[in-house]
Amino acid sequence: MTSLSQEQRTRREKTLLVSLLLSVPGPLVTWLAVLSSHSTTQLADFIRRSVELVALFLSWWVFRRLHGNITPGKAEQIRLERMAGLGVAAALITSGVLMLVIALSRLSEFEPGGNIVPGLTIAALGVLTNGWFWRRYTRLTREQYNAVMAAQQQLYRAKTSVDLCVVAALATVAIAPTHAVTPYVDILGSIAVAGYLVFSGLRNSRSQLAPALPQESPLPE
After folding, report:
1. Does domain 6-209 have CATH number 1.10.238?
2. pLDDT of residue 218 exceeding 50
3. Angle, helices 40-66/117-143, rounded to nearest 10 degrees
4. Which of 104, 105, 90 is nearest to 198 (CA)?
5. Which residues contact 205 (CB under 8 A, 6 or more apart)?
6. What is the pLDDT of residue 115?
7. Which tens digit of pLDDT belongs to each residue from 38-83?
8. What CA–CA distances, in Å, run from 63 to 22, 59, 69, 106, 186?
9. How far is Cα 207 from Cα 210, in angstroms, rounded to an integer?
10. How far is CA 163 from CA 69, 120, 142, 159, in A?
11. What is the CA radius of gyration of the chain?
């Protein structure tokens, strides 16, 4: 396991904890926004945030186990790191599949409407917050490689990209709710987000299941 100084461990654990705590209200707030609108993209976003919250908690817990007072053996270290990485991959894939099912199931009957301002606001704030954490985890990974930090870098890159897609879809609904193409923009937004999440999750899971190399190298941004 890559050795981290006490200061490095503290900074990384603090970043994980802050990102976890900031993500806790996300599912609840997004669900309240879903209740005030009829957006498929917004409903899918609620599912995505809920599953990601579980992955964030798992990553925080694994980091504490790996860098606690009792250092685990090599086999336990590999198992825990893969657990965190596969947790992120599972969150991405599960969210993507659920979003795709919802989008396709409502394709023939969906009509955009309702108050999408709360959801649009949440997604826009998500772009800023998740973008910051993406940069933060990228910087920490480049400074000294750590498998848990690298998994979080991938997760927040996906989260930022997804929030951008959600903003684009909801903004279209807000600007032209009655336009003939608006329902398809919202549905296609969900499908695009789902495809990206599944692709990212499969790529992440392949890297986690590959044989461990003697020396890990930082993932590209």
Report:
1. no
2. no
3. 30
4. 90
5. 85, 86, 89, 90, 93
6. 66
7. 666 677 778 778 888 888 999 999 998 888 766 777 888 888 888 8
8. 18, 6, 12, 40, 38
9. 5
10. 37, 10, 24, 6
11. 18
200 CB burial (10 A radius; 0-12, 13-18, 19+): buried
Report CA-CA distances (Å) from 66 to 59, 79, 83, 188, 207: 10, 10, 12, 41, 20
- The enclosing H or E element of 36 equals none
User: CA 39 to CA 186: how far, in whole Å?
Assistant: 7
The Cα 54–Cα 8 span in angstroms is 24
Ordered DSSP codes for 156-191: HHHHHHHHHHHHHHHHHHHH-TTSTTHHHHHHHHHH
CA 126 to chain centre: 11
SS3 114: strand
**pTM score of the predicted model:** 0.74
Q: How far, in Å, are 127, 140, 192 from residue 130 at the CA level?
A: 5, 15, 19
CA distance from start to end of the chain: 22
Look up tokens 């409502």; give the residue: 106
Alpha carbon 109 to chain centroid distance? 29
Quickly list H helices, the chain: 6-23, 25-35, 40-66, 74-105, 117-143, 147-175, 182-209
Cβ-based neighbours of 22, under 8 Å, separated by 6 or more = 129
